[in-house]
Amino acid sequence: MTDNRVPPPFLGDERATLNNWLDWHRETLAVKCAGLSEEQLRQRSTPPSTLSLLGLVRHMAHVERVWFRRVLNDEDVPLLYKTADPDAEFNDVDTASPEEAFATWRAETEHARKLSAEVPLDAIGKQQRHGQDCSHRWILVHMIEEYARHNGHADLLRERIDGVTGE
To answer: What topology does CATH give the domain 14-162?
Structure first.
């Protein structure tokens, strides 16, 4: 399993620290998916859960888009993978293209990095979320939390698939 992550430095200003930890967690998801076949990426955890590594990649692309493009920047972009099923990014993976999912996720993370670099940490998102204003700083912390939680899921999924473990 190739691991190109750069460990976050122990010293740095707030923005660098938040960005480094977010990038660490983004790349952790990539590491957990590295070297697996399409079938393995689609493999579910245990019933009744529909969780899979491919579903996690699709979900994180959706989350990146919502928080950075829609909430922070007020871009009028459609939601990803949404159908009548509110959990389509997880549930509709049987015929989903891993190549498309990873390309979309990478594009969304790159777009998020660019938007984030242009906005002060204290900036308030241009759209409310759940009826609340939130700062750019809050969004970054939330994204670190979102990735950390789902990377725990990814670690368990990967171990179940082929026994590979690691941070």
So the answer is: Four Helix Bundle (Hemerythrin (Met), subunit A) (1.20.120)
